[in-house]
Write a structure and sequence with these properties.
Blueprint (H helix, E strand, L loop, with lengths): L2 H21 L3 H17 L14 E3 L8 E8 L5 E9 L9 E6 L2 H4 L4 H17 L8 E7 L3 E3 L5 E3 L15 H11 L4 E8 H12 L3 E7 L3 E8 L9 E4 L14 E4 L5 E5 L18 H8 L10 H4 L1 H17 L24 H6 L6 H11 L6 H32 L9 E5 L1 H5 L1 H19 L5 E4 L4 H11 L2
Parallel strand pairs: 2-5, 5-8, 9-14, 14-15
Antiparallel strand pairs: 1-13, 2-3, 3-4, 6-7, 9-10, 10-13, 11-12
Helix pairs in contact: 1-12, 2-12, 4-5, 6-15, 7-9, 9-12, 12-14
Length: 482
């Protein structure tokens, strides 16, 4: 090795050591994170802090009767681009029937129109589903709706989309979703009765609880991050009134369907949609180990200064954090040759999180997966073995930090949900992040169990990896339980 090569290797080793130190999280840091999040979860339920807390703890009433009969579940994407409907037949004495599901893609003309256009399309979807599945002869069907937006109880007839809704979501901020859906159903004379409108993470929690009664927490790690858990009603200082569609006849043009009615909560627990991705944005930024690359991604995002935790662990951002580190190494001339065409990799969000798993899992001596991905996606070929190892190391550092942070947040949620040594507790996990990188899932679960073992002396907690569509099934469960 020449002096120049030796100096180059020394600089690379130094920088990699610095990056490694930045992305390494100690046990003490994890414990501090759990403590900070647990405190914020508790604080956010207090009346005096509800409007100033990082987490918008949005309660939802959960129907507690065993599901029975045929019901429908509908999911509306946060973007409004896709509507899914399923039908499930529930029986007390046997497992539910396999769901029958249809997916509808919203026409662009309706997406570009006011939100009323999307509701008109929802009516079309319901009618089309009923006709294509020969459900017209049935009695009025209960319909549970789930939507990928934070829903805030208005204290009136329904749930409105919270002001915390994502910037790039369907423009329903402030809209009373329940009321508009009721109006759509009545106006189009659809043979359905809307029984509930819930956030999709809450619906996933309902689905998991139907399968395993010990489930207390559900979390979704997709392009965004969210979690829901069951809370004791007496812990909520400002107890909400919940709207549901009452089944008794009412004074409407079609009294079979009923009208929204305010009812008091008569159950001991409610589901809390935490909007956990917001954690660390205001009061607890020091609890999250932010690096210069995290700050860069945050600064250049569409929501700078917001949803801090989400930007450390979500599928949307892990690849971008990795890309930023690789670019810094390239700028320091420590990665690739000086003649490498960096046009494609210099474009934001082109290094997808899905690329990280095959790179991390490659155990071959020449790490051919790195060469294949960079040649196909970025027109960069002839990568040296040293550069391939560097890329693999960066991917592992970013992914493993995300997994540990996810495990710590899950531990805080389990503790807030009331973990007791004598009672089993299960956690339901889902999301594209775990689909594309199973190592992150395994490490998150290991971190969760290790933290609970350290804090409670009992790390026994069950973990369920939910399939896609769990929110849709949960909406049907909630509808059939009314």
């Amino acid at each position: 090795m020449t002096f120049t090569e030796s100096s180059h290797q020394h600089q690379l080793d130094q920088m990699l050591d610095q990056i490694t130190e930045s992305f390494t999280i100690s046990d003490q840091q994890l414990t501090t994170l759990v403590s900070s999040l647990h405190s914020e979860l508790t604080r956010s339920l207090q009346r005096n802090h509800r409007h100033t807390s990082e987490l918008h703890m949005l309660p939802s009433f959960i129907h507690t009767q065993p599901p029975s009969g045929l019901s429908l579940g509908m999911s509306i994407d946060a973007s409004g681009k896709r509507v899914r409907i399923t039908s499930v037949n529930f029986s007390h004495n046997s497992p539910p029937s396999p769901p029958t599901t249809q997916v509808f893609v919203t026409p662009r003309c309706m997406l570009s129109s006011p939100p009323s256009g999307v509701f008109d399309f929802v009516a079309y979807c319901i009618q089309e589903f009923i006709q294509s599945n020969n459900l017209e002869g049935q009695e009025v069907l209960p319909l549970g709706i789930t939507i990928g937006l934070p829903l805030s109880n208005t204290g009136g007839a329904g749930f409105s989309v919270s002001e915390t809704a994502k910037e790039d979501s369907l423009d329903l901020t402030g809209s009373n979703v329940a009321r508009r859906l009721y109006d759509t159903v009545l106006r189009n004379h659809l043979p359905v009765r809307i029984t509930s409108v819930t956030n999709n993470t809450v619906s996933a929690l309902i689905a998991a609880r139907h399968m395993d009664k010990t489930t207390r927490v559900a979390a979704a790690f997709n392009h965004g991050v969210n979690a829901a858990y069951f809370e004791q009603l007496h812990n909520i200082e400002q107890q909400p009134q919940i709207t549901r569609n009452h089944a008794q006849p009412a004074k409407t043009a079609d009294s079979r369907r009923g009208t929204p009615e305010i009812v008091a909560i008569n159950t001991e627990i409610v589901a809390i949609n935490t909007e956990i991705g917001r954690f660390g944005s205001l009061h607890n930024s020091s609890a999250l180990p932010l690096t210069m690359w995290d700050r860069c991604v945050d600064r250049e995002s569409r929501t700078p200064g917001a949803r801090t935790f989400e930007k450390l662990v979500a599928d949307k951002y892990l690849g971008e954090i990795t890309r930023n580190i690789l670019l810094d190494l390239m700028d320091c001339r420590l990665l690739f040759s000086t003649t490498t065409d960096a046009t494609r990799i210099s474009t934001e969000y082109t290094f997808h999180t899905a690329y990280m798993a095959p790179i991390m899992e490659d155990c071959s001596t020449d790490l051919c997966s790195v060469e294949d991905i960079f040649a196909a996606e970025f027109n960069i070929s002839g990568i040296s073995l040293r550069d391939r190892r560097t890329i693999q190391r960066i991917c592992c550092l970013v992914a493993r930090r995300a997994a540990k942070l996810a495990g710590a947040v899950l531990a805080a949620l389990v503790l807030k949900a009331g973990l007791k040594a004598e009672e089993p507790v299960s956690v339901a996990l889902s999301g594209v992040l775990f689909d594309v990188n199973f190592e992150i899932y395994e490490m998150a679960v290991d971190t969760l169990k290790c933290i609970l073992m350290q804090l409670q002396g009992d790390g026994v907690v069950g973990v369920l990896l939910q399939s896609r569509g769990s929110d849709l099934f949960g909406a049907a469960v909630n509808a059939a339980s009314f």
